[in-house]
Amino acid sequence: MPNPARNAYDLTGRTAFITGAASGIGRASAVLLAEAGATVHCADRDEHGLHGTATAIKAVGGTARIHTLDVSDRTQVEAAVQAAEEADGLDVLAAIAGVMHSSPVLETTDEDLDRVLAINFKGILYACQAAARAMIAARRGGSIVTMASGAVDTGGPGLLCYGAAKAAVVQLTKTLATEAGPHGIRVNAVAPGWIRTPMTERHNNSEAQTHTEALMSRMSPLGRVGDPADVAQAVLHLASDASSFTTGQILRPNGGVAMPW
After folding, report:
1. Please, how many CA atoms are within 13 Å of residue 232, restricted to the half-sphere of its CB?
2. First vs last Cα of the chain: how many Å apart?
3. 162 included as an active-site residue
4. pTM
5. Residue 183's CATH number
6. Is residue 60 part of a domain?
7. Considering 9, 121, 126, 162, which one is annotated as catalytic?
8. Do the Cβ atoms of 154 and 258 come closer than 8 Å?
9. Contact in structure between 239 and 189 (CB atoms under 8 Å)
10. Over the stretch 83-100, which tens digit does the pLDDT of each residue have?
């Protein structure tokens, strides 16, 4: 018998392009979308990590393609998205690649700001532009998922560059949703809370990491920090027909740390 609930999340016959797919949230999302049936094009500058993601996708019976690229380079992003469209079509974009940065406002340099904006905002912009153009030309609709952050809802010391870039991603998401909607393309953002990933771990020693996670756990009504799988589920929801009437929205898998109206 047909299973409407299961079918709503079925991506069989569809193709997803995911940036930041070599690790963390990007890898978890790539594997989950592959489990849901999608052919997944995995993009990242970390080629070794991409092969690890491809191996994980194959282990669940999925199909993976690899694109080694720098998301801050428009030409590389456009070429990879075009290659994916020509090879398999393009139904889903999950623009996840990003870097963490922390510096006090009074110590932030032009170089700090330019680097973070180039990756965390422009990298998502380039992917969105390339994917939207391909989807519009194909006339079959699609879903674009951008990666924002809980930093857009709360202030915090050191988060100027990172928070500003993610706030820009939210505005991009809402604006593109209004422009792409008439073409049947949905555009939504995911704004995670504290997630245990290589990006959040690399700047701390084990003692500092344990302290940070304990603090963030106490701030959450659920009493824990998140894992990449928690965010991947949100990406799958927005990529699938389960969210067919959802666009221009921010989905917040943050454990209840922020509850904006």
Report:
1. 22
2. 40
3. yes
4. 0.94
5. 3.40.50.720
6. yes
7. 162
8. yes
9. no
10. 999 999 999 999 999 999
